[in-house]
Amino acid sequence: MTETRPPLPASLDDVDGWFPKVDQRLFTWFLERQERLGQPGDLVELGSYLGKSAILMGRHLHDGETFTVCDLFDSQAPDASNQAEMDGSYSTLTRAAFEANYHAFHDGLPEIVQAPTSAILDHVRPESCRFVHVDASHLYEHVRGDIQAAHVMLPAEGVVACDDYRSEHTPGVSAAVWEAVAVEGLHAVCVTPQKFYGTWGDVKEVQDELLEWLGDQDDLWHEVQQVAGRRLLRVKGRPAPKAPKKDRVRELKERLARAEDQRSRAQHELDSVRNSVSFRVGRAATALPRAMRRRHPH
Ligand SMILES: C[S@@+](CC[C@H](N)C(=O)[O-])C[C@H]1O[C@@H](n2cnc3c(N)ncnc32)[C@H](O)[C@@H]1O
């Protein structure tokens, strides 16, 4: 039997995963800001799935920098609760599928650590990174370890992004993220509906620059809140603006025309079915008396 492979993705939208547009914009902003400020460093992603966020991160890799992704892919999880997560959400995931997707956008692959994220510090040196994406297990103990590892891998000006910090089904992530803020000196830069962005370095400067940029982005909404006396930016996407009334009328007319076209095609099919049925019934009606006459001649 020949194996059927899914078609290769042509754009990030074609890659399955969990990476909303607002976070794509923010990853790009944080990574480009570091490039602008001349802050080189390696990139790390803990939890890559089919590569949606890794593909974008890989676009910002410069000569001399390393991008390391760490994921279990099709290996066993280190404990039963983690295995239950894997079976529930990522049961069809394979490393080959990640690699094929990544290759569709980049010539080379990142460094791949196919292992529990608890092994990451065996592969990445302390303070060698500029950006770490924490998006692997959602269990408190694991996420806590992943954030601690991010703290080790990042120098002060580095940025950590944590996924699912507020989802109803991931209270362990919330606990680990806010614990790092409350006790481990992590400063919250901003939050989106899905991700938390923080730094162990100077938060004021990065927030000021982010606010300035956000002011010019028509597709992004933001507000500033004070949380426990510290500034926190909330950012989310704005719904796409509605088309002007004239365009809407034209769109409605086109939809109406398409619906009318479908209706008339359906009517045509119905008529031809009716005609063929009545033709057959007619034929049967003439054939039956003849057959009866043949069987019972008077
Ligand atoms: C939410 S997905 C990652 C989504 C991805 N970043 C994206 O943009 O679509 C979580 C990934 O973490 C991996 N994972 C779960 N537990 C892990 C663990 N303990 N160590 C390493 N990877 C793990 C899963 O295999 C899965 O691919």
What is the fourth-level CATH superfamily of the largest domain? Vaccinia Virus protein VP39
Cofactors, ions, other ligands: S-adenosylmethionine
Instruction: Supply the CATH architecture of the largest domain.
Output: 3-Layer(aba) Sandwich
Number of domains: 2
What proportion strand? 15-25%
- The sequence of SSEs as H and E is HEHEHHEEHEHEEHEEH
Mean pLDDT: 93
Strand order of the largest sheet: 3-2-1-4-5-7-6-9-8
Q: Give the N-to-C terminal Cα separation.
A: 66 Å
Could you characterize what this model shows?
With 298 residues, the chain is an alpha/beta fold. The protein has 2 domains: 12-237, 3-Layer(aba) Sandwich (Rossmann fold); 242-298. 44% of the residues lie in helices and 17% in strands. The protein has helices at 21-36, 52-58, 80-89, 95-103, 140-153, 171-183, 203-214, 245-295, and strands spanning 42-46, 67-71, 111-114, 129-134, 159-163, 187-191, 195-199, 220-227, 230-237. The longest helix is centred in the C-terminal third of the chain and has 51 residues, at 245-295. It is elongated and about 105 Å long. The termini are far apart. The chain binds S-adenosylmethionine. S-adenosylmethionine (SAM) is lined by residues 17-19, 47-49, 52-53, 70-72, 77-78, 82, 86, 90, 93, 116-117, 135-137, 142.
Structure in a nutshell:
Helices cover about 45% and strands about 15% of the residues. It has about 300 residues and is an alpha/beta fold. Bound molecules: S-adenosylmethionine.
